[in-house]
From TrEMBL:
MF GO annotations: oxidoreductase activity
Assigned EC number: 1.12.-.-
Domain Aminotransferase class V: 28-322
Oxidoreductase in keyword set: yes
PANTHER family given in the database record: ALANINE--GLYOXYLATE AMINOTRANSFERASE (PTHR21152:SF40), AMINOTRANSFERASE CLASS V (PTHR21152)
Enzyme type, top EC level: oxidoreductase
Keywords: Oxidoreductase, Pyridoxal phosphate
Cofactor(s) recorded in Swiss-Prot or TrEMBL: pyridoxal 5'-phosphate
SUPFAM superfamilies: PLP-dependent transferases
Protein name (Swiss-Prot/TrEMBL): Soluble hydrogenase 42 kDa subunit
InterPro entries given in the database record: Aminotrans_V_dom, Aminotrans_V_PyrdxlP_BS, PyrdxlP-dep_Trfase, PyrdxlP-dep_Trfase_major, PyrdxlP-dep_Trfase_small, SP_NH2Trfase/AEP_transaminase
Pfam families found in the cross-reference section: Aminotran_5
């Protein structure tokens, strides 16, 4: 039996979207491929509230994270980590020989704008990375407040990992002054894994032009130049099948569901899951900074999680255990992409039934 995925990526993909990936291919150097990429970019500009450039990458989001820190750090990067994915960005910096410092919070907490400001005040950094939605802990950093502080430092390139929140949560890229915002196909967009996307500001372009060793495959400037100078082309062979599905799905999001409705639905789903978790368990994350897309639940009842997920599997559902050090202490329910309120309620009722809660 197929298990409906309530894990924080990959997510459940609608059948119509999957079918797009089975369409016959086109050459990637033709006009049709350019048109396809241009259409995708134009819809992303609406979803991210930006007039800056949009880059596609045939890789998961980690590729663009590595590309961003490598292509745009000249002096030193400040990496703000509140969990596993923040740590990953620091490891990418170090393994690419980028000078970087990591600033950490305890898992479950968010950064405040004051904490960010104290780091930026030193004047040591010219790029910062921050995780918008930390999927390991279920914490959403207060990106709008943080953006206010970063706005005071015009030399800083502001990079945001929004892999598990963008397209499910409103992030006004230009208003917030975000230079590079990254997301992957298999989270809130609702596609199979294998493609990722980022915004790329004029400021980031200027910075990348000054960086000598930007790598090759994830050189963001090269991705940009193929769009600008070669009419929406891609430096190597992109996953055309993903692009078909992406084009289809973005048209659905923008013209059928509506961007604001999509964000609203994610908020409602988060609320339902949080209320359920609060009633029967406890929330792991600081309540002021709860994620709109994934809820991390403290296993205060000491339930046997494998038993629960096995039983859910027999009924056609799958949820996720805790991440890394939280593996046995928490479990996670993702409510992202095209997940409906009905199917989420159905999942929670089944959990109640299996665990004999009520
Ligand atoms: C899933 C995830 C990533 C990694 O993305 P991939 O597409 O798997 O490379 C990075 N950051 C966050 C917050 C994530 O949830």
């Amino acid at each position: 039996m197929h298990k409906k995925l309530f894990i924080p990526g990959p997510v459940e993909v609608r059948q119509e979207v999957l079918s797009q990936m089975a369409l016959p291919l086109i050459g990637h150097r033709g006009k049709d491929a350019s048109q396809l990429q241009e259409n995708i970019i134009n819809n992303f500009k609406k979803i991210f509230y930006t007039n800056e450039q949009i880059l596609l990458s045939t890789s998961s989001g980690s590729g663009l994270m590595e590309g961003a820190i490598r292509s745009c750090t000249l002096k030193k990067a400040a990496v703000f980590s509140i969990g596993a994915f923040g740590d990953r960005w620091y490891e990418m910096a170090i393994s690419n020989n980028i000078v970087a410092d990591k600033f950490e919070k305890q898992w479950g907490e968010a950064f405040t704008k004051e904490e960010i400001e104290r780091v930026l005040e030193t004047g040591e950094y010219d790029l910062i990375t921050i995780t918008h939605n930390e999927t390991s802990t279920g914490v959403m950093n207060p990106i709008e407040e943080i953006a206010e502080v970063i706005g005071k430092y015009p030399d800083i390139i502001f990079c945001v990992d929004a892999v598990s929140s963008a397209v499910g949560s409103k992030i006004e890229v230009d208003k917030l002054g975000i230079d590079i915002l990254i997301t992957s196909s298999q989270k809130c967009i609702g596609l199979p894994p294998g493609m990722s996307v980022c915004t790329f500001s004029t400021k980031a372009i200027k910075r990348a032009e000054k960086v000598t060793y930007r790598g090759k495959y994830f050189d963001l400037l090269s991705l940009y130049k193929y769009i600008k100078d070669k009419n929406y082309q891609y430096p190597s062979t992109p996953s055309i099948s993903h692009m078909y599905a992406l084009d289809y799905q973005l048209n659905y999001i923008v013209n059928e569901e509506g961007i604001e409705n999509r964000f609203g639905r994610h908020k409602v789903m988060a609320k339902i899951t949080e209320e359920w978790a609060d009633k029967y368990f406890e929330l792991f994350a600081d309540k002021k900074y709860l994620s709109n897309t994934v809820t991390t639940i403290k296993n205060v009842r000491n339930i046997d999680f494998s038993y629960l997920n096995n039983e859910l599997g027999k009924r056609g559902f799958q949820i996720s255990n805790g991440y890394g050090i939280l593996k046995d202490k928490t479990f996670r329910i993702a409510h992202m992409a095209d997940c409906t309120i009905e199917s989420l309620n159905d999942l929670l009722e089944n959990i109640n039934d299996i665990l004999k809660l009520n």
